[in-house]
Amino acid sequence: TAFKDRALQMNVGAFEAKSDIFLFVHADMTLPANAVSAVREKIRQGFAGGGFKKCYSTNHWALKIYCFLTNLFFFWVSKSLVGTNAIFARGDVFDKIGGFEQGSFMEDVVFADRLKKSGRMALIQDAVTVSPRRYEENGVLRQIAKNAEILFRYRFLHQNPSDLREIYEIV
After folding, report:
1. Rounded CA gap, 76 and 155, in Å?
2. pLDDT per position as a tens digit, 131-155
C-alpha cells in the first residue's frame, strides 16, 4: 500500500471494507481453504474475534517446536495473539476499541490485548502458513530469542512497545 505504517494500512482496510467482520492477513501468509467460513462460524457463535493457529512453511526443527509452543502459550495460557495468527474481529468491536494503534511497534499484540478485553476470543484450529523469511535471514534461534525477549519485556516487565522496537531491529 501507499502507507508504510502497518497499523494505518489495516485501519484504512477496515474503513474501506464492506463487511462487518475484519480479517487481517500479512502478505507472507497463506490462509487455510476454509478460513472465511471458519471465521464467520466463530463470529456466529458469539466470539468478539480471534485468530488462527500458525505454522511456518519450513521443516526446520526449531520452528516446528516454536510453533507448537507459541500456539499453546499464546492462546491457551495468555489468551494473546500476534499478527501472524491472522487476527479477526467483529466490525463493531474493532470500532469500539479504536482499531490498531497507529505508529506503534507491536500494534498487533496491543490490538489483540484490547480485543480480548472486549469479549470471548476464538482460536481456529486450522493453521495459517507463514513464511520463515525473517527467521532464515536473522538466524532461527536468534529470531526466536528476540521475539521471546520482546514479549517477556512487554508482558512481565510492562515495557512500552516503542522502547522495544530497537531489539527487533526496526528503525
Report:
1. 15
2. 999 999 999 999 999 988 998 899 8
